[in-house]
């Protein structure tokens, strides 16, 4: 019996010397103990917030920067029977008030706007009509010619208001190679200015087949000879044409 007891004690001591001690509290694992399939900590990515200042910023349903309707320079019109036509060519100040930029080669608020294509003018008209609630448009060629010749008050002049071109127009001989402020020369019989010279003026009409996209312009300009300023002279160009001799004036049927 004594021998059996000693054997049991010996066996217990031998087993205890080889046993692992298992802690009963959690231990933070070292890097070597981390599992390889553990999910990595997500990275926080900060995206830059971009504010596009050319787009209207809205707050409580209204625009922060409303269109400057009250700052639009007036477009003076002359009634010519069943339509009204601009007393002056559209100026750079008027263009900028609607479009926000000035495409003209020669700069000056009261100079006629130029370097505008027929297509550009359509965009201007759409915006102008939205701002004013009116119905401006380009004149037809027949409307332009009727007004340029003086309507029912016509004296039959070769140019708009006189047979002496230098009195009514800025053209090659007197323009000093630039456009001039509108309304400086003598007007025609209807008190309309610069229908001859200064800048040639887009009208609404097509020239020839629509497929070619040519549009008519009339009146001669600062760079043209006297022949181009005759009221019977017609020119045309692609609807996308821009030039320092090309501008326009407005018409309204209201």
Outline the structure in words.
The chain has helices at 2-16, 92-99, 118-132, 141-148, 165-168; strands at residues 58-59, 62-63, 77-79, 84-86, 136-137, 200-206, 214-218, 234-238, 246-247, 251-252. The protein has 254 residues and is α+β, with helices and mostly antiparallel strands. Helices cover 20% and strands 13% of the residues. A hairpin with a 7-residue loop joins β6 (200-206) and β7 (214-218). Residues 6-36 and 40-69 have low confidence and may be disordered. The termini are far apart.
Order of helices and strands: HEEEEHHEHHEEEEE
CATH class of the largest domain: Alpha Beta
Strand proportion, as a percent range, falls in: 5-15%
Distance between the termini: 131 Å
């Amino acid at each position: 019996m004594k021998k059996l007891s000693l054997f049991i004690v010996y066996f217990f001591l031998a087993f205890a010397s080889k046993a692992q001690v298992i802690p009963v509290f959690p231990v933070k694992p070292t890097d070597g103990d981390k599992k390889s399939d553990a999910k990595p900590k997500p990275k926080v990515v900060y995206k830059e917030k971009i504010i596009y200042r050319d787009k209207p910023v809205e707050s409580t349903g209204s625009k922060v920067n409303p269109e400057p309707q009250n700052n639009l320079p007036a477009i003076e019109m002359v009634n010519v029977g069943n339509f009204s036509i601009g007393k002056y060519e559209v100026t750079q100040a008027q263009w900028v008030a609607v479009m926000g930029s000035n495409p003209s080669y020669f700069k000056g608020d009261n100079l006629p706007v130029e370097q505008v294509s027929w297509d550009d003018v359509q965009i201007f008209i759409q915006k102008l009509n939205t701002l004013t609630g009116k119905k401006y448009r380009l004149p037809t060629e027949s409307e332009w010619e009727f007004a340029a010749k003086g309507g029912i008050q016509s004296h039959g002049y070769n140019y708009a208001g006189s047979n002496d071109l230098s009195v009514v127009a800025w053209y090659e001989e007197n323009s000093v190679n630039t456009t001039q402020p509108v309304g400086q020369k003598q007007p025609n019989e209807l008190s309309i200015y610069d229908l001859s010279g200064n800048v040639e003026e887009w009208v609404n009409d097509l020239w020839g087949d629509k497929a070619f996209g040519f549009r008519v312009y009339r009146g001669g300009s600062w760079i043209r000879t006297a022949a181009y300023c005759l009221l019977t002279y017609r020119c045309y160009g692609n609807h996308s044409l821009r030039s320092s001799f090309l501008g326009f004036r407005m018409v309204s049927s209201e």
